[in-house]
């Protein structure tokens, strides 16, 4: 499957999950936006960058940097939502402005991020 198609599917799956939890979601018209969507939490707006991983492994690494050397700034992105197809869900965590990659798995430290649709 094409990488762009996988990313698009992840964005729509994220939208469905967010709406099913009672949030409103909007997508920017401009593809060059630093974030993929905005969530209205009822207490404010959160900018989300969505990524996806298609590897069939229990533990996967995802690169989430804006460019080879630069992480996403806290000003541009509030949260990351990474869809891991093999895990059948999203890992959602706050952007600290330093993360360039992350290791994800349901049985390691990142398990607390799995399907954690809490945006504070």
General description of the model:
The protein is α+β, with helices and mostly antiparallel strands. The chain has one domain: Trna Endonuclease, Chain: A, domain 1 (3-Layer(aba) Sandwich). About 15% of the residues lie in helices and about 30% in strands. The chain is built from one helix and seven strands. It has one helix at about 5-20; strands at about 25, 35-40, 45-55, 60-65, 80-85, 90-95, 100-105. A hairpin with a 4-residue loop joins β2 and β3 (about 45-55). It is globular and about 35 Å long.
Keywords:
32% strand; single chain; 120 residues; 5-stranded mixed beta sheet; alpha+beta; Trna Endonuclease, Chain: A, domain 1; two-stranded antiparallel ribbon; 7 strands
């Amino acid at each position: 499957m094409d990488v762009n198609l996988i990313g698009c599917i992840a964005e729509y799956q994220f939208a469905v999950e967010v709406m099913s939890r009672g949030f409103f979601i909007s997508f920017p018209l401009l593809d060059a936006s630093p974030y993929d969507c905005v969530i209205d939490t009822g207490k404010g707006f959160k900018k989300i960058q969505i990524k996806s991983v298609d590897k069939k492994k229990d533990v996967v690494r995802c690169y989430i940097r804006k460019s080879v050397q630069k992480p996403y700034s806290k000003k541009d992105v509030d949260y990351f939502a990474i869809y891991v197809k093999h895990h059948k869900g999203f890992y959602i965590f706050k952007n600290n402005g330093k993360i360039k990659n992350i290791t994800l798995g349901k049985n390691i430290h990142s398990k607390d991020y799995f399907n954690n649709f809490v945006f504070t």
